[in-house]
Amino acid sequence: MTLLSLSDLTVFRNDCPIVDGVTVRVLPGECVGLIGPNGAGKTTLLRAALGLLEARGYSSLAALPASERARAVAWMPQAREIAWPVSVEAVIALGRIPHLPRGARLRDADRAAVDAAIAHMELEPMRHRTATHLSGGEQARVLIARALAQETPLLLADEPIAGLDPAHQIATMQVFAGLARAGRSVIVSLHDLAQAARHCTRLLMLDRGQLVADGPPAQVLTADNVARVFGVTAFYRDTPQGVVFQPMELTK
Amino acid sequence: MRLAALLLVLVAALFAASLLSGPLPVSAWQALAALAGDDGTPLSVVMREIRLPRALLAVMIGASLGLSGAAMQGYLRNPLAEPGLIGVSGAAALGAVLALQTGLAAAFALALPLSALGMAVLAVLLILMLAGPRGASITLILAGIAISALAGALTSLVLNLSPNPFAAADIVFWMMGSLADRSFTHIWLALPFMLVGWALLAGLGRSLDALTLGEDAAQAMGVRLPRLRLALILGTAASVGAATAVAGAIGFVGLVVPHLLRPFVGGRPSALLWASALGGAAMVLAADIAVREVFPTRDLKLGVLMALVGAPLFLHLIYKTRKELP
């Protein structure tokens, strides 16, 4: 069963292709890292795949009606926006909106999904606190729980670990890797190649809108690819404690 | 639910107080009896044709302003937004001023509200053209500011060129907003528009809740933003346009009421919709009682009193927001 299928997806801005002929299939159980330098088109690719942007080519998600799509994929934009001083629980319950019949209140199944998401992200102690008063890392966890409560087979996240401390970064990536092991799939864009190498089962490398590499981290993060796309040299070792990847110097 | 009951009781109590407020020295019991049955006395005429429509209009106008203010703040995710932002009240005021200036208002009773409604419709068409289905929320704000400025300039032009100082005074007093001397004719004129507006705005709750997480996240949760924006503009225009057409410009209700009630509904935009509708009704009823009781001999205008109360509240809001910012 394919969760996402893109074929020849292309996005133009003023005649210039931002995303250029990307073809990808994502199956259940994958933790996919989307990597590439600033301006490579990571966010644009994710938004076009969701149908939030006009695009040429085909995306299986964009082809769905809006209400059906909301049950097929959850989306975490890069901006961690919580506009009003609502409780943590209320924010997470927003994830149930796509499942609620018109005009209905939360049903037992919805409350169970909210409780499960709160338990998953260990948010029980702050359940009734005001979400806008939490720290950035805590808000990020609340927003992940919100996406989990949507109970979709696929989760798309745009730079979910940007601006977080190391513990929150690792915890977030472990949640995503755990979802993939449980049979759901996650596509996450990120700049931290070390985290990508350690936690993702598959990497997609974007360069100026084109998909230049697609495969397991060891095959994508080759010295040649990293130098060509990111313009840096890197240290890569498979150690007993897991993969260690460290960008080192600029290639000039 | 407790808040709903509380607000309902408050509106009911203020409605009764509004019916009993006025210069006639009669007991509450007499007044209510005269209201219940038409006994042919002057008191019955006063109660049924002056005080009842006045109280009903206060409820309708307050609910329209509160509801559209809550919807507008929810959509723009900004506690400083208000229904006048899309330029409809300014345009409606211009329509009314034109009717007063040309003498149409004196020629037949409904010329003024009809002309105001016509201008409000024109403003909506203009704003839909500018900030149509593909526009962003910032386009809506900018288009609203432009339309308000244009309507304001044209209103000033009419005043400027007015050859008759009495007409100019009439215009100025009308623009201050008032519920005095309104009849059931005004209610029947405004009610259909308001009902349509309320229906459109009341259906937005879930989409506005989803917007708490931003436009992108809401869209990915199945919210159709172009439809939301259309319903918001048409709903606000219909209810606030009709309110301005019959009562003149009454500011601050749409701004202050949602702000005051937000903490009591846990910040949820959907719950704030009905709460602000009730709260707006209570606020306009209270203000309309105050203008009659504070200066019974002077014709204190409702819009003036509302701004006197609203502006300090607004300052308080700015003060608090300033403290919460880093």
UniProtKB/TrEMBL annotation, chain A:
One of the record's GO molecular function terms: ATP binding
InterPro entries according to UniProt: AAA+_ATPase (IPR003593), ABC_transporter-like_ATP-bd (IPR003439), ABC_transporter-like_CS (IPR017871), P-loop_NTPase (IPR027417)
Pfam (any one): ABC_tran
UniProt keywords, alphabetically: ATP-binding, Nucleotide-binding
Matches recorded under PROSITE patterns: ABC_TRANSPORTER_1, ABC_TRANSPORTER_2
ABC transporter domain residues: 4-233
PANTHER family per the UniProt record, alphabetical: ABC TRANSPORTER ATP-BINDING PROTEIN, HEMIN IMPORT ATP-BINDING PROTEIN HMUV
Protein name: ABC transporter ATP-binding protein
Organism from which the protein derives: Pontibaca salina
Lineage of the organism: Bacteria, Pseudomonadati, Pseudomonadota, Alphaproteobacteria, Rhodobacterales
Automatic annotation (TrEMBL), chain B:
A Pfam entry, by short name: FecCD
Transmembrane regions listed in the UniProt entry: 57-76, 83-100, 106-128, 140-163, 183-204, 230-259, 271-290, 302-319
Gene Ontology cellular-component terms listed: plasma membrane
Family matches, as SUPFAM superfamilies: ABC transporter involved in vitamin B12 uptake, BtuC
UniProt entry keywords in alphabetical sequence: Cell membrane, Membrane, Transmembrane, Transmembrane helix, Transport
Entry's family note: Belongs to the binding-protein-dependent transport system permease family. FecCD subfamily.
Name of the featured protein: Iron ABC transporter permease
Species annotation: Pontibaca salina
